[in-house]
Amino acid sequence: xxxxxxxxxxxxxxxxxDGELGVGHAREExxxxxxxxxxxxxxxxxxxxxxYKLACGSFxxxxxxxxxxxxxxxxQWRTIIFAxxxxxxxxxxxxxxxxxxxxxxxWPAFPIVARxxxxxxxxxxxxxITAVLQQxxxxxxxxxxxxxPLSEKESQIMQETFPLLECLVLCSxxxxxxxLSSTFLSGSVPRLRVLHLYGIAFPALxxxxxxxxxxxxxxxxxxxxxxxxxxxxxxSGLNTPPPLSEQITISTLxxxxxxxxxxxxxxxxxxxxxxxLKHAKIDLFDQPHFDISQLSQFLGRxxxxxxxxxxxxxxxxxxxxxxxxxxxxxxxxxxNTSECFNLNFAFPSRFELFQLNQICQQISxxxxxxxxxxxxxxxxxxxxxxxxxxxxxLFHVFSRVEQLHITGRSSLNVAYAxxxxxxxxxxxxxxxxxxxxxxxxxxxxxxxVTSFVDxxxxxxxxxxxxxxxxxxx
Length: 473
Known about the structure:
This protein is α/β, with parallel strands linked by helices. The chain has a domain at 91-245: Leucine-rich repeat, LRR (right-handed beta-alpha superhelix) (Alpha-Beta Horseshoe), CATH 3.80.10. It has helices spanning 42-56, 61-70, 75-82, 100-106, 123-133, 152-157, 205-211, 231-238, 262-269, 293-300, 353-362, 364-367, 385-397, 411-419, 443-458, and strands spanning 13-17, 20-24, 92-94, 112-116, 139-145, 167-171, 194-198, 217-221, 248-249, 255-260, 272-273, 279-285, 310-316, 320-327, 339-346, 372-377, 403-408, 435-439, 441-442, 465-467, 471-472. The strands form five sheets. Strands 10-12-15-14-13-16-17-18-20 form a nine-stranded mixed β-sheet, with helices on one face. It has a six-stranded parallel β-sheet with strand order 3-4-5-6-7-8, with helices on one face. β4 (112-116), α5 and β5 form a beta-alpha-beta unit. α7 (205-211) packs parallel to α8, α9 packs parallel to α10 and α11 packs parallel to α13 (385-397). The protein is elongated and about 80 Å long. This is F-box domain-containing protein.
């Protein structure tokens, strides 16, 4: 049976054929099963457009192009779309390739998205930016690469009020480190939801944040020293109305991204709670010793948190370490509901295993539920008794691990460390382990692993299944 088709019976009319909206000669499509669309009430036609918007992405460039095609299909569609500006999220996209005059003169006074990013801007592009920014009462999004400082005219315009502004992304990639004044955007952005600053100094940022009560996404990357903002000032800006001395709750925060030193992270996290947090990515650097004592407490205040059941550690050369944990959603949960936590460390010198232990000990309560642990190392093994002891200390943290997979250059060291586990202490180190993998696996590893498996068995613990790859002699 052929797929049902929908068409409008007129010579040149809007047709919906195999899910595609367009203009055509409907009578030429008379095959299969048809239902007229002309008879549909306007509310239903609007719902079709609404779901089409969702399929494209509500604020995507694709949808902003598609609705402009639809309004040219027929007068009825044009009327429905123009009357539903907010529901259909109608925007005018201004880019270096677009003619500003045509864009602004051709269409009604819809909100404007100004996107001038992704490359060095020509003098003509700068003129376009100035022309767009002059429509400050209509702009809802600004995405701008500052390869050069703002011109005097641009700076003057940016002191105006932007009452509709919901998204602001400013980037400086050339080391110019622009500094935004305290009167930038008149110091007030009541509808702002997204703020991303890359390489931008903005000492008056806390004041601006205090006006952004709807803010849900804040990213500060590569902040120049001239734009340093203390954690206390940053939190005070996020906490509206007036700052409180106690810890504040940011209930809308679902993703946290941080790149900076430990002391700043600790100070910041000690002042906030994020009960709805789902994802976190934290990069730490330039620290001989990593103090992340506030991180574990911060994660403990996440109401929706499930303790991670999967952990992956990757040890790089030179001096870098990546840690990833994930809470896998139970069967039957909605898609994309897994929670993920990433830690990245850049060590000032060669990575040492005791540093990994130092980190894990500080977040041991958070790691207590891990069932599957993968460790991959690019680090050359030291092969010392101290190194073996450090591996055993690490495994103490993961007391509930059932699957342990070790790959890379330290697999032989791990085997030798496991050989030190006697039946007397087996109940304290990896007592719930059921599956073990070492890769590469050498003939030297075999004896060590056999000793560990036997000690586990003598202690009356669950049998261990050893997944043995090809032996390297």
